[in-house]
Write a structure and sequence with these properties.
The protein has 162 residues and is of the alpha/beta class. The chain is built from five helices and five strands. The protein has a five-stranded mixed β-sheet.
Length: 162
């Protein structure tokens, strides 16, 4: 059985609507590797015409598309409340064909559908992390998430993508 941990985060420049998503995928047993080693394994991807909500979904979908075939269980860590709440909102989305109560199509319909399509076959759990915690309050996962957060912000500011 192969258990994995996936941490994702994004950083958007709202004026240009460009953003950078970062992800770190490790085997559960690897979470005790040095922070320097884990930092080198973070991947970043640039996205255009995006927003903070959209970028979090785009980043997660991109990271999920790169999952290894031997992934038996996945724990996804995110600070996105939207992603955490998607499962609870799915029934309503589908019952109303992805339209709002006002009869307007939902903004991120394609991404929501892609998320459900990508996660339905997975054995996974979502865990909400608090982003931007002070260093002394961070546990191991918070420290890993801080690496991913910093990588997404740095890549967006520098404009470099690995």
């Amino acid at each position: 059985m192969s258990d994995y941990i996936l941490l994702t985060d994004g950083s958007v420049h709202t004026q240009t609507k460009t953003g950078t998503g970062a992800s770190l995928l490790i085997r559960t047993a690897e979470q005790t590797l040095s922070m320097e080693t884990l930092r080198t394994r973070i991947k970043v991807q640039q996205f255009v015409d995006t927003s903070s909500t959209k970028l979090e979904l785009q980043t997660l979908l991109w990271a999920l598309s790169e999952l290894p075939k031997d992934c038996d269980h996945l724990t996804i860590y995110t600070d996105s409340q939207n992603i955490i709440n998607l499962a609870a909102r799915r029934t309503r989305f589908e019952a109303h064909d992805y339209y709002s109560k006002r009869g307007l199509p939902l903004r991120n319909t394609e991404l929501y559908q892609a998320y459900f399509h990508s996660t339905d076959p997975l054995n996974f759990e979502l865990v909400k992390v608090k982003g931007h915690q002070s260093t002394r309050k961070r546990n191991q996962i918070d420290q890993l998430f801080a690496l991913v957060d910093k990588a997404s912000r740095k890549a967006r500011l520098v404009g470099k993508v690995k």
